[in-house]
């Protein structure tokens, strides 16, 4: 059985590497092509790439596991994410695409901040770069943990070996092909993910007999599993919905908007992206929920194991893949988890690489570096960050959803308010942005790592609100009219209206 599954997974890994070599020939001639694809991405690739980069291993492991343990009260997170993603497409994506090009063709967020505010110092740029390095290293580590767990659970391969296999393939195609490779592999990975998350719950329900019987089994086990408000509190509901706030501050998603060919294509990308998201998130929730009924009817022994372990519950998708399907099909389904894991890791590695290269190396070490030298620096940055993330992943101490949640909150709180205000309010200043970024990031770290009685509240809420308030307040105090900023802001709004 594992032979057939291994063949499917092996073919998938080779395909990802092949895309890396294809991209090397097409779009790695200079740093702009390597880091942002030369701003030539189409709507479909942008949409699925943004979605796949967003939905890391937690989509097929962490989220179904949470649904299995808590029932449909866990779906509040799906509602919050879908609303947040839609609003991000509407308010942030077109403005960011236009403004980054208007503002001296910035290809990284820290560079955009520097250009947007016309600051003569590099405080905002270096601070935002450091935030990216810290939180993306944690984020990348969470993805690598997912890859290691997949190989351990599905193939009985040592966790460390699985971790190294996942990391090696991702680093290879990212190192070789840059942004184009990451985007094309994300497109393939996004397609695999949506197919898997549609197929698995449908087949599971058919095995049980009907959706009605599945829900009867779930209700018989625990009626609270089918109540949106049972087993939860007002604070936890608000906390789950607050995940949607994070979208406007995620560099690996925002860079997709910066790379699309034309701003007007974002309308089509939004339709594709949100449709894809509804199917994948709903499918992931159904996998966890239907798993409750399936195990109760057919596999009580595993039900008891899954009930007792959060880590084990996160493998419900793997369980279904191996129980319901022929090994060749199960191998394909298992690649959906690898797809989710790898899409996020590669995106995070590339954004971190771009920050190290464009915002630190080029700004402070070698201001007149040649395109070849910048390409080399970018690739070496990929290796450096991946090595640190692997070390952090060797002994994971938390479940996947929590690891991702902490990094998501960190970016959302540090960057989200600054992105929104810089695109919507021309009086935003670099002093306000710097203060808000620091307050947001520190609030998240303190909320997570200090002991206090308010742990039930997701750290995104205090982090985002305090960052927004700080950015707005300090900007009001420090604002001074600037003709260059006024001119670029007007040009952005004019282009936005025309598109």
TrEMBL record:
GO cellular component term, pick one: plasma membrane
Topology within the bilayer: Multi-pass membrane protein
Reaction equation(s) it catalyzes: L-proline(in) + Na(+)(in) = L-proline(out) + Na(+)(out)
MF term (GO), any: proline:sodium symporter activity
Subcellular location: Cell membrane
TM stretches of this protein: 6-24, 67-91, 123-142, 162-182, 194-215, 235-255, 276-295, 328-353, 374-395, 407-425, 432-449, 461-479
Domain of life: Bacteria
Biological process annotations from GO: proline transport
Keywords assigned: Amino-acid transport, Cell membrane, Ion transport, Membrane, Sodium, Sodium transport, Symport, Transmembrane, Transmembrane helix, Transport
Primary role: Catalyzes the sodium-dependent uptake of extracellular L-proline.
Family: Belongs to the sodium:solute symporter (SSF) (TC 2.A.21) family.
PANTHER family referenced in this protein's UniProt entry, alphabetically: SODIUM/PROLINE SYMPORTER-RELATED, SODIUM_PROLINE SYMPORTER
Identification of the protein by name: Sodium/proline symporter
Name of the gene: putP
